Amino acid sequence: YDYCITIYNLSKILKNNPLLMLNDYLKYMVSGIGLSNTTFQNKFLIPSNFYIYSEFYKNLFAKKYGFNKNVMKVTGSIDLYNYYSIINQKRFNAPCYLAQTFVEDNRIPEILFENIIAFYVNLAKEVNIFYLKLHPRSNIDLYKNLTSLSNVIVLRNEFPNCSVYIGHYSSTLFLARYLSGCVIIHDIESETIPKMYQLSATLISKNLNEIKKEIYMNQNILPNLENISNMLKRIAPMPVINPIVAIANEIRVFYSDQGS
């Protein structure tokens, strides 16, 4: 409903037919059809300056939204820039589960999510310390069977420096890959893992015993930063400058040029 109201209001501003805009938007959401050459291709919706994570997204946004590549500048991800502070923290010889909002975003029903949590309860009982890194929108009540264990440490805002990371496909896996030589994607039947995220994994598996073996065999392996940087440079490059500072500098230059 909120999307419909937003599109209606947007159509009035752009003087477009609201039904046509809604139809284009639904095609985009349901079928993944790009928004270029649609009612959304309007100069008021296209930024004059566009700051993005990587070359991958430059190509993606040009294809899906019709944005001019010349207005896009790669500044990197602030999440990846946090690597520099995380790597200087104490390293824990422990696995960390990077939680996703499966139930919160209606990607899977809660009853199936309980099976995923049971998987991690089993795993946590096999190790001395187990970290649970919640998503900012995670409902912690969904993890009660895991958080009730005395060796489970729950984090929401902090990203721990761990020897092993386990997750599903997510951009947090890229940061994990820079920090660790052992990054596991837990494959679940309701998800299809895009190839770009598969690059971040040292193992992709549905099998608990296989995941346990990977942890025990490779938890002390440090990442080869040169190899990882080369592998991820088009998708998730490590920023040299804080992206927030880089964008602020770009904005200053832009307004300075406008005034001159």
Compute the CA-based radius of gyration.
21 Å
How many extended strands?
Answer: 8
Mean pLDDT: 89
Overall 3D geometry? globular
Walk across the major sheet and give the strand order: 5-4-3-6-7-8
How many H/I helices?
A: 12
DSSP helix fraction: 40-55%
Sheet with the most strands, sense and barrel status: 6 strands, parallel
* N-to-C span: 45 Å
Low-confidence stretches: none
Relative strand content:
5-15%
N to C succession of SSEs: HHEHEHHEHEHEEHEHEHHH
Structural class comes to alpha/beta
Q: Topology of this protein?
A:
Elements lengths: L1 H13 L3 H14 L18 E3 L2 H11 L6 E3 L3 H4 L1 H4 L5 E7 L11 H15 L5 E4 L10 H4 L4 E4 L6 E6 L4 H8 L3 E4 L8 H4 L4 E3 L2 H11 L6 H8 L10 H17 L1
Parallel strand pairs: 1-2, 3-4, 3-6, 4-5, 6-7, 7-8
Explain what you see:
The protein is α/β, with parallel strands linked by helices and 260 residues long. 43% of the residues lie in helices and 13% in strands. The protein has helices at 2-14, 18-31, 55-65, 78-81, 83-86, 110-124, 144-147, 172-179, 195-198, 208-218, 225-232, 243-259; strands at residues 50-52, 72-74, 92-98, 130-133, 152-155, 162-167, 183-186, 203-205. The strands form 2 sheets. The protein has a 6-stranded parallel beta sheet, with helices on both faces. α1 packs across α2. The mean pLDDT is 89.
